[in-house]
UniProtKB/TrEMBL annotation:
This is CPBP family glutamic-type intramembrane protease. InterPro entries: MmRce1-like, Rce1/LyrA-like_dom. Pfam families: Rce1-like (PF02517). It comes from Sediminicola arcticus. Keywords: Hydrolase, Membrane, Protease, Transmembrane, Transmembrane helix.
Amino acid sequence: MNRKKLFVFLILTFLWSWILWIIGLNYLSDGINQESIGKFLIFFFAGVYGPTISGIITTLFFDGLIGVFELIKKLFIWKVPLKYYIYIILLPLIFVIIGIALYSQYIGEIGGFDELAYLSIPTILFAGLYAGPLGEELGWRGFLLPEFQKRYSNLKSAIIIGFIWFIWHIPLWWAPFGTLVSGEPISLIPVITYFTMLICLSIIITWLVINSKGSVLIAILFHLSINAGIALLFYPELNMDFKKVHLLSSIGMLIFTGFLIVKNKLKTSANNTYK
């Protein structure tokens, strides 16, 4: 593990994202309206690309163009067992369905079922692709994960990245959107739940990546599937409370993450990097 390389990546990532997000948040300081939201969105989307851009810049500096080429190649690793594509679809659906069931049981009515909601799925996926997955995964799972794997087990690497991932999102807590803590008064339970979710998701994505030859494409697709919350589209009356449903979905993530750890699915020996 090259400490200087990691340091440069993390400094670049946080400076890029946090500076842009803070500038964007400044436009909202005088009130949220169409104009201020429009300006914020520019800086929000630019900031989201901090990890990917920093991964490319750091790789270029330390490993040259050949290193950048090897990093970019991970975006195009698609020949993986079919079951991992199925996991990408099914796991987020199951997590959200658990969240909906818990909401219905303990919070309130979930409303009617919209049979035509599937028509909006392509639009949601296309729009969501640019709001996180493309901007983040080449950095987190393409660059950072293999670096940590040189010293730590896959599980420990995933947990460390999950913690970094959580800290990276902090400025967006004060934004109207961007995290499950955003747009609401900041309180301990949502923050702890959000932290737990990111740790679990980091472990799950790491499991997918190490079983798909280091494919960043798989990480992007899973991240997109999680963000999209497809199951929620079929219950439009939950749109106003979608954050609570997603936070409740952490129960399913915890259960599945526990299964991966107990069954040693992350091959937790050190230095087990993939080619």
